Amino acid sequence: MELLLLSGGIDSACLAHWRRPKHAITIDYGQVCAKAEYEASAHFCHLFGIKHHTVCLDTGMLGSGDLAGRPPHELAPESEWWPFRNQLLITVAAIKAVSLRVDKILLGTVRSDSFHADGRVDFVSAVDRLLQLQEGNLEVEAPAIAMDSATLVEESGIPFSHLGWAHSCHTNDLACGFCRGCYKHRDVMERLGVFKHGER
Questions:
Q1: What are the domain boundaries of the chain?
Q2: Is the pLDDT of residue 89 over 90?
Q3: N or C terminus: fewer CB in 10 A for the chain?
Q4: What DSSP string describes the chain?
């Protein structure tokens, strides 16, 4: 049985449609766009018949960058970087997974996430091994880690009409149009031919 770490963005929405896990979890860790992420995730779970779980764990005072509404940390490779964010989210998801008797946690990581250390194959492999050392013997899988987002959309078979519900903005509950998340969303839509280059 699988539990999807669901943010409501394009990549995790595609995994929700593709893998149809029994459970999904959305975590409010203090990110400025938490409300929009929750609403998008709840909508996808309703569409795809997935049981939606939520956790509020406010670590906003520890974050940095766009997602925290603060200047990026000096170590940040990009403005949205939040120190150890994926490690935190996977740990919280694992705690919930044990209570649900889940065997596997799914991550919506794609190839472009390898820009960050916690989006690389070696990180996913390491956290998978770490969880298997502990009670519950949980596995961690990132099924689309070798794909780009447009390929994942096509592979998942998600209708384009559903993608309009995805929330990708890092800075606001309404898409700002200028952060890396919004740029990525637009680039994916352009590549898929949903709208032409230059349209907004």
A1: 2-192
A2: yes
A3: C
A4: -EEEE--SSHHHHHHHHHH--SEEEEEESS-TTHHHHHHHHHHHHHHHT-EEEEEE---GGG--SGGGTSPPPTT-SSTT--TTHHHHHHHHHHHHHHHHT-SEEE----GGGGGSGGGSHHHHHHHHHHHHTSTT--EEE-TTTTS-HHHHHHHHT--HHHHTT----SS-SS--SSSHHHHHHHHHHHHHTSS-TT--
